Amino acid sequence: MNELSDEIEEPANLRLLRRLVTALMVVMIVGFLTLIAMLVMRLAPSTPELPLPSSITLPDGSKAETFTQGPDWFAVVTTDSRILIYDRETGKLRQVMEIEK
Fold first, then answer.
1. What's the pLDDT band for 83 if we cut at 50, 70, 90?
2. How far apart are alpha carbons 88 and 71 in whole angstroms?
3. Which CA distances in Å does 5 have to 16, 42, 45, 70?
4. What's residue 55's pLDDT?
5. Do residues 18 and 61 share a domain?
6. Which of 2, 25, 61, 86 reaches 20 to 30 Å from 50, CA-CA?
7. In terms of DSSP H, where are the helices of the chain?
8. How confident is the model at residue 52 (pLDDT cuts 50, 70, 90)?
């Protein structure tokens, strides 16, 4: 019986199926590792967050529309088409820019 089993070759379709299952396993492992790496990169803090100012004093009659910030300044775009740039440390108005319509 041992001699007979040694002589029987594996069918070609079974060999192909075994290779496909192995390839699928490798692809799934690589995909899982990529997913874990993407989650680690996404959740890891890349840069320290800049603190938001506790309060901003806008000129009379101005209403804030949007807010943005840089390393040593922050800016407020108002509804009356102006950009107000403030110093981050002192909170004083540094520059006013008018937006042309």
1. very high
2. 8
3. 20, 54, 60, 75
4. 80
5. no
6. 61
7. 2-7, 12-43
8. confident
Same domain? For 54 and 39 the reply is no
What's residue 2's pLDDT? 59
Contact 74, 88 (CB under 8 A): yes
Worst-scoring range by mean pLDDT, 7-21, 42-56, 65-79?
42-56
The answer on 35 and 66 residing in a single domain is no
Residue 2: both structure tokens together:
């041992």
What kind and span of H or E run contains 44? none
**12/39 same-domain check:** yes
Q: Give me the number of domains the chain comprises.
A: 2
Measured distance CA(77)–CA(68) in Å, rounded: 8
Interval 16-21 mean pLDDT: 95
In this structure, what token pair is assigned to residue 54? 């506790």
- Would you say 78 and 63 are in contact if contact means Cβ atoms under 8 Å apart? yes
Structure token pair of residue 90: 């002192």
